[in-house]
Amino acid sequence: MSLRCPACTEPVALQDFVLQEPIDGQLSTMGQVTIAGDCSMGGKVVCGHLVNQGRFRGEALVYGPVELNPQSVTQGKITAQSLKVLLGARIVARVTIGPNLAKRYSKPPLRARFQQDPTDPRIPPAPRPAGDPVPAS
C-alpha cells in the first residue's frame, strides 16, 4: 500500500517493525514499532505507535500511543500523544504527552529508514517509491 502526504506529496511509509535482536540506530516509520521482550534498542525512533516489551534507551517521537509493558525498561526522552505504563514497567525518561503533538513538528517521517549498516540482514530494505533512483552498488 502506498500513500502520499496531502501537504507535500511525498510518499509516507506505513511499515510495521518487530525488533527481535539488539539494535542501535535510527528507525523512522508511521507504522508500529514493537521492541520484543529479549531485545534492546538504542537510538532514535519516530513512529506512529511504539510498544516496548524489552529495553529502549534513546529518544522516541511517537505520533500515536506508547505502551510500556511489564518487564520493559525505558530510558531517555519520549514525546507522544498518549502513554500507557503497565504494572512492572520501569521508566526513567523525560516525557511529553499531548493530543496535538503532530502539529508541533514540521512533518511526519516520510520514508521508512533505518540508519545503520545497509547490509544488515535483520532489517528488511525499505520499499522504493516509483521514480526514486536506485543507488549504485
Describe the structure.
There is one protein chain. It contains one helix and 13 strands, in the order ββββββββββββαβ. By secondary structure, it is mainly β. The protein has one domain (3-101). Strands 12-10-8-6-4-13 form a six-stranded mixed β-sheet, with no helix packed on it. A five-stranded parallel β-sheet has the order 3-5-7-9-11, with no helix packed on it. A two-stranded antiparallel sheet has the order 1-2. Strand 1 and strand 2 form a beta hairpin. The mean pLDDT is 80.
Number of self-contained structural domains? 1
Q: Helix-strand pattern, N to C?
A: EEEEEEEEEEEEHE
Give the oligomeric state. single chain
Characterize the largest beta sheet: strand count, sense, and whether it forms a barrel. 6 strands, mixed
Strand order of the largest sheet: 12-10-8-6-4-13
Work out the strand percent.
over 45%
Number of helical segments?
1
Please tell me what the overall shape is. Answer: globular
Please provide a brief summary of the model.
The chain is an all-beta fold and 137 residues long.
Topology:
Layout: E1 3-4, E2 11-12, E3 17-19, E4 23-28, E5 32-35, E6 40-47, E7 49-52, E8 55-62, E9 65-68, E10 73-80, E11 82-85, E12 90-97, H1 101-104, E13 113-115
Parallel strand pairs: 3-5, 4-6, 5-7, 6-8, 7-9, 8-10, 9-11, 10-12
Antiparallel strand pairs: 1-2, 4-13
